[in-house]
Amino acid sequence: MSIVRWKPLIHQLPLVRNPSLSLREQPKRYIRCCPKNPSLSSSAGFVLGSKPDSGRNLRPIVEAKAAQSPPLSQETDLISSEQFTVNRIKKTYGKVSVKLERRCGYEARWMLEVSCDLVGKWILHWGVSYCDNQAEWDQPPPEMIPPGSTVIKDYAIESPLNARSEGQSESAVQIEIDGDTPIGAINFVLKEEETGRWYHNKGRDFRVPLRGSSEDEITLSMKQSVSIWPEAFDQISNMLRKHEESDPAPAPILEDNSDTSSKKPIIAFHEDYTVIKEEPVQNSMTVTVRKSDKSSDKNIVDVDTDIPGHVVLHWGVYMNESKNWHVPPPPYPPATKVLRKSALQTLLEKKSLGLGNRGSFALNKEVKGLVFVLKLDEYTWVNNMGKDFVVPIENSTSGHEEKIEEKPGTVSSTDKSVDTGAAPYTENLISGIRNLVDDISSHKNKAQKTNEEQDNILHEIEKLVVEAYRIFKNSSVVEKPDKSVDDTSTTPTQLVVSSGTGNGHEILCQGFNWESHKSGRWYHELGEKAKLLAELGFSIVWLPPPTESVSPEGYMPTDLYNLNSKYGNIEELKDIVHKFREVGIKVLGDVVLNHRCATSCSENGIWNIFGGRLNWDARAIVADDPHFQGKGNKSSGDNFHAAPNIDHSQEFVRTDIKEWLCYLRKEVGYDGWRLDFVRGFWGGYVKDYLEASQPYFAVGEYWDSLSYTYGEMDYNQNAHRQRIIDWINATNGTAGAFDVTTKGILHSVLERCEYWRLSDEKAKPPGVLGWWPSRAVTFIENHDTGSTQGHWRFPAGKEMQGYAYILTHPGTPSVFFDHVFCFQEEIRRLISLRLRKKIHCRSTVKILKAEKDVYAAEIDGKVAMKIGPGFYEPERGPKNWTVAAEGADYKVWEAS
Amino acid sequence: MEVSLSGPKVIVAKLKDSKVKRLGFSAPGFGYSGSNFVDLGRKCRVNWVGLKAIRAQVAVEKNNAPFRKEKVQSQTPVELLVGLPLDTVSKSNTINHEKAISAGLRALKLLGAYGVELPVFWAVVQPNSPHEFDWSAYLAVADMARCAGLRLRVSLNLNGCHRPNVMFPGWVLQAAETDPDILFKDKSGALHKDCLSFAVDELPVLQGRKPVDVFESLFRSFSSTFKDYFGSTITEITVSLGANGELRYPSFPPTTDSEFTSVGEFQCYDKYTLSQLKQAAESAGNPLWGLGGPHDASKYDESPNNSNFFKDHGGSWNTPYGNFFLSWYSQQLLHHGDRLLSIASNVFGDLPVQLSAKVPLLHHWHEMSSRPAELTAGFYNCAERDGYDAVTEMFAKYNCMMIIPGMDELGSNPESLLHQIKQACEKHGVQVSGENSALVKQGTDNFGKIKENVQAGLKTFTYQRMGADFFSPEHWPLFREFVRGMERSQLDADDLPEGNGGGVSLSADSEAGNNREMQAA
Q1: Is B246 a catalytic residue?
Q2: How far is CA B39 from CA B66, B99, B146, B234, in A?
Q3: In chain A, whose CA is at the least distance from the CA of B520?
Q4: Single Gene Ontology BP term (chain B) (predicted)?
Q5: pLDDT tens for residues A575-594?
């Protein structure tokens, strides 16, 4: 008896104009059927032998869960029926078309049209760039902004795509462009509002150049359209963005140079991109077991699903409780393949109208159950919440006892007497115990103990643990340990062993300054201070860049595998890492991934041939860096102009970099990374690198300018910190970033005595640490901003106010080398307090005062602090506050 | 095995074989001393958490079958325990979050834990007078552990605790109000309201009774109340020998607890201790030494490098006065420990339980020659003087196991101190068990450290402690993997699971089938 459950609301196929399930075409083989039951058009029967063989575990990627089975009392020969909900990913292919053409009837007006033929609420998220070679985003002039648009950030516009006509799925948006506009290019990405997914062009912006400046520009845009590698995005699980080139794009047509303006003429542009929209779809699947009315020793299993396309049942049977996969001897039903004697694959029969598939099997009575998964195409498997689908088959004579023994975790519809909410749970408990006991009693053949049984126990344990956690958490009796969990966004990543953010209680020391290379034996000199740094309470030290470099400071690397630098040779490096390890300090390596200096010229005199073990050539250099004639793709970030920027979109580059990072981890013993100039390339690559090298801690330098109006820093720096957070997001939270925002704001606060800036509009800290504290690495100075370079020096004489702020606040504080010695005792006291009070990167801040001349805050209710000349004292109350540290214009208290 | 449904809501499972293989932490079978037929026929009711009034009655019977193949292992596997929440029993003598604990016990059992540690507080047992005892809630917890098939290590805390806020019994606090000097007092006169001065051990300060006598009657009451549990469920009794339940002075500031990591101060300023110091100084022939503790020691949070007493070079710790004071100070701690262990071994000596006590791992500042944090806590363990030898000797005298916390501490200090204490234990034949200091919430290094320490020859390891954080999604997976990792490293070759999808031989298969048929019959 087959039960068909339709989920028309979720199943959206008919709505899609151009649907194409990513199912591989299968040879058309159908189960040859003979009529069996009025409601079933056909069923295939075959008898199973008793000589079993073992099965294999499959790792399907799609999951399903068992739903409550429907009551089927009207069927007398029915044994059981079970319905599963099947979740899978539906892929829909569509086309994004970008057209730039002269507006009809207007000589000097142009029109950019972006259209998409996929169903959805599409939003064009766009900006313009005035200079040709930069991927900068700027606000367009107001007359360009189409109606209905919203200004999202101060550099982007969101314009909805409107349906071309009622009921049509294709939608488009038009942007009008003045022929005289100084705009060089329009950049955009697409967002689908219902799913919230972003569609990038290979992880970068789509870019429409308005003017081809030279022959180069045209080839560039051509190149971009052809060189597509979708596989790079398979790793990005959160956002599904895939683009493939459907048709070769017509070459951009050079317009007649009829424009009389001095500017280069606008060039028409047309490109199509393929987008794949992936959305979760819920289907259902019903498995019914009934008695054969022909012969009494057979049971019929009917499988019915509304999954469209080809569905292959990958199945086996089990003869006993171990649920090992067994394959019966031939004969097999039609359209069945035997897979190396471990499973059978049967193509299900298509139902009429193509609205699903079904199949029917006759199994003899010795078979205790059917185990299966579904195969939709070569790459798409459907399983049951990470496990095989299990359909137990009982003989009608068996009672409750046996049922419980034989089918833990499943519910039989005939088992109506059992309280529905509790029954599966109880059965699971029993099965857990039973499995455990089975596990133990099978002493003679331990090999029999399968992973599956262990999984059952573990599953049981997890259930109990969740239960215990829930009660403990809600228990008001418990005096909660001081711990804030407001940082919920990071929770999932914390589960990853290597979240790249340390243990949350880290305190960083930058172990060098701009002059450190001069002695030639820095590793040695710093090594002597290891004990002191440990004693001060630092848990991580950041060492200078270790590689051979054109500049002595190390930031212009050449041969990445040559670890002899002005700071010392490789042996000394290993030695210092060892020394820090010994005193319990982790070591960060400063890795420069954005650029690399070439060691020789190419034939045309351009320095773009790399030396050393990674002998890359121009293909490893981004194409939009005119100085080095790179032959790679365009940069996925900003360019660093002094050296060839590496094209991280090249797979060989990424492979080499990953290998190098792993080498550094293993050979040198680094625990993590400080990543130089990460503005230069897409954060997704960083994620890739961090996943490969599994650092204990990683922090990126994303340093760009804060926003100022007439030379005065804006109060609201949300855009600035958003850019840093965007980067962290792109790394999937695998790395933290230096909190440049906080440093910048502290500058204004201290220079102008404007302590009110330290509370944002929501009364939270205004820097990155206010939004994503666990990923913010707070600092007030580094080798670039201070030291002998002084690019952006912290207000002199106010450093300790800065440290009083960052060392008491959440985020991971970093202390600059010079300051460790200038302010040793004061910093020692603050660090000691931080450790003593267990302030960590997710501690909570309560801002008590943010006025003209004083800022005061309480952290985790354990530490109170104030900076600024104004007055603040913690209130006398239930807590007894004692002064823990004080100095020029700062004071810190601890609750005792 | 039989499983039967005796009604829609009650399931009775009779397990013929309750022999539960502990995943990795101990040998198969019940390794405890005593009866082989524990829980025989005993039915225990377990409230399955989360089920609407569903009760399962599980009758667990011990397998009568002869012992199966014993694994030959070079060393006894470490027994893993998990500490129950400090507030398992509330001040009003009820069980807190009982359902959660019950689910937790089950999960731990399935995971393969050996047992749990139950912290018992004096204030809960004797809230009103030195003559009455109320063990009811603790008995209920012991019952839960027994039903879950877990062993129990009971920690008898004779001191207060800040978290949860369980202080001394009211009548002890009253005594302290009339005579504050029965409590430890620091240099500035602040009192430790959770720790009785060692100097009053044998003075009738508690309603006319000596603290040692009060403790003895407490021990005796415990011993008689729990007599059915010893050997079977309760396998270990831990006696607290000082502040924080450890053998130590409360050298930390009066309002903090063990998380304090600075040097701390000497605690010898109550009048009873001062008078003993005075006597000692006089008999040493230098009465001026008996006027108080070192005047030049650092304050609680100060760096010892800046103090005249502790500084590495020329510090007064290394003078005849320093030697006198530190010897006397550490001797007082030893005497106190000796008194309590003597009582405990007297009371519990004949029971089939292991006696144990905790020694702190005071590794902060261990790198300094003076070892200041150890000095203030009462361990005279300077660069050239082994302060743990005498301590370990005392443990050996009473056949007491030593529990050392801080097995998760990373770095060279903990390592070298631990090494020193363990060496002393080895010398005197004292068994060592371990605990961690804090939940390991992130990173793998701390669990790695625990594993390393555990494998270096601990008798038991107690993971502290159960609670919301313990079961949180941030922590639990790490702990589970730690336990399973231990399992893998301790399994015999034939215990290792077959590779994924690996072929199972036909004979093995059919045999399994037979077994099951027999079981079903």
Answers
A1: yes
A2: 18, 22, 8, 13
A3: A402
A4: polysaccharide catabolic process
A5: 999 999 888 899 999 999 98
